[in-house]
Design a protein that fits this description.
Blueprint: E1 9-11, E2 16-18, H1 22-31, E3 38-41, E4 48-49, H2 52-61, E5 66-69, E6 93-97, H3 98-101, E7 109-113, H4 120-130, H5 137-172, E8 179-181, H6 184-187, E9 193-194, E10 198-202, H7 210-221, E11 227-228, E12 232-236, H8 245-258, H9 284-288, E13 292-296, H10 327-339, E14 353-357
Parallel strand pairs: 3-5, 5-6
Antiparallel strand pairs: 1-2, 4-9, 6-7, 8-10, 10-12, 11-12, 13-14
Helix pairs in contact: 1-2, 5-8, 7-8
Length: 360
């Protein structure tokens, strides 16, 4: 399988990638008429959403199915004040991690299928190939309980959560040194929709990174944020957060008050967007299974990666197997490790060396 990347829209001011637009998808499908399908990730970790219906129209005009990775969208079908659910927006297949924005335990995921572009028996075959033979009754029970709760009380519970999120956002906007992301992201154009249950806070004006803010909040206020990166922190407000509103606000207020005392770390060398668009020299599968060697970071530029390298948080791959590694990417990744990135999928998490395709 040869991947054809549809590059996201990059928000230079926020240093944030947003989902691609329908015209971006349409253009790539014209350039690659033998494409078999489209995989779209929406919402993002930060709550920005694609125009799923527009992307679906582009895919269906080319007679290819649209598969939506809607990991952060379990709540979307149950309230009109939320972004469109993939199935309501004509996606063919939607995969949802209910344990994220729903009410189920870890590993509770479901997929939804409609139309005839993906045969049900083919999907079942693939699921049987990859799924566990020791299914957990706890997972099934949690999924069914959450389904019933949403069917009976979903609108009521999410309505309360939406009001709660807006109150939190209004208070945090008054704190010095914080920049909150909200509905303006739609008006400015980078995103088609925004999930208002995501409280996204840029902390760079405090002189710290989102990772430092998250660590400080965890250690000093015992508050675990939903996500962070070099620029921001985020809190995911769900129907279950009925008694945590004050805890979050007080913790962030304390962070602002103590930001000057947080030790400064070496900065992450954030690259320009085009730097991350690496040359694909081999198919991912071919590179992953090729003979490999480990090369010191100082000498790895120009070599073909044989591994995925994903900085956490938030865990988005920067290098994929088959891509040509560059000096700029090495500098970005290693400066990130020095700052606090966790690289859990690399053979050498310190990135002193890289796993690359061996030269013959």
């Amino acid at each position: 399988m040869e991947p054809v990347w549809v590059h996201p829209k990059f928000d230079t001011e926020r240093h944030l990638a947003h989902p691609p637009e329908p015209e971006d998808v349409r253009r790539r499908l014209r350039d690659h008429p033998d494409a078999k399908g489209m995989l779209l990730i929406t919402p993002t970790d930060w709550g920005t959403c694609a125009d799923i219906r527009g992307v679906a129209d582009a895919c269906h005009a080319a007679d290819v199915p649209l598969i939506v990775d809607e990991a952060w969208g379990a709540h979307l079908p149950f309230h009109p004040g939320l972004p469109a659910w993939g199935m309501d927006a004509d996606a063919d297949l939607v995969v949802t991690s209910v344990h994220k924005m729903g009410g189920a335990i870890e590993q509770s995921s479901v997929f939804h299928l409609q139309y005839d572009r993906v045969a049900p028996e083919v999907l079942k075959q693939r699921e049987d190939l990859l799924g566990t033979t020791s299914a957990s009754s706890l997972v099934y029970g949690a999924l069914d309980g959450w389904r019933r709760q949403m069917a009976e009380r979903g609108h009521e519970l999410l309505d309360a959560a939406l009001h709660r999120a807006e109150r939190i956002r209004a208070v945090l906007r008054e704190f010095p040194g914080l920049r909150l992301m909200g509905g303006e992201i739609i008006e400015e154009g980078p995103a088609a929709e925004f999930d208002p249950l995501k409280i996204v806070v840029d902390v760079r004006d405090l002189g710290i990174s989102g990772m430092q803010a998250t660590e400080w909040l965890r250690v000093h206020r015992h508050v675990d944020m939903g996500g962070s990166d070099t620029c921001r922190i985020t809190a995911s407000i769900t129907h279950a957060d009925d008694d945590t509103e004050k805890t979050l606000v007080d913790a962030v207020r304390s962070l602002v008050e103590h930001a000057d005392s947080i030790e400064r770390r070496p900065p992450v060398h954030l690259p320009e967007p085009h730097v991350l668009e690496l040359e694909q020299a081999m198919l991912p599968r071919a590179a992953f299974f090729a003979p490999v060697e480990h090369v010191p970071a100082e000498h790895v530029a120009g070599r073909i990666a044989a591994e995925t390298i994903s900085p956490y948080p938030p865990g988005v791959p920067v290098v994929a197997p088959g891509e040509v590694i560059t000096d700029e990417v090495v500098d970005y990744l290693r400066s990130g490790v020095a700052h606090g990135f966790l690289i859990s999928d690399a053979a050498d998490p310190s990135l002193d060396s890289f796993r690359v395709v061996a030269r013959t």
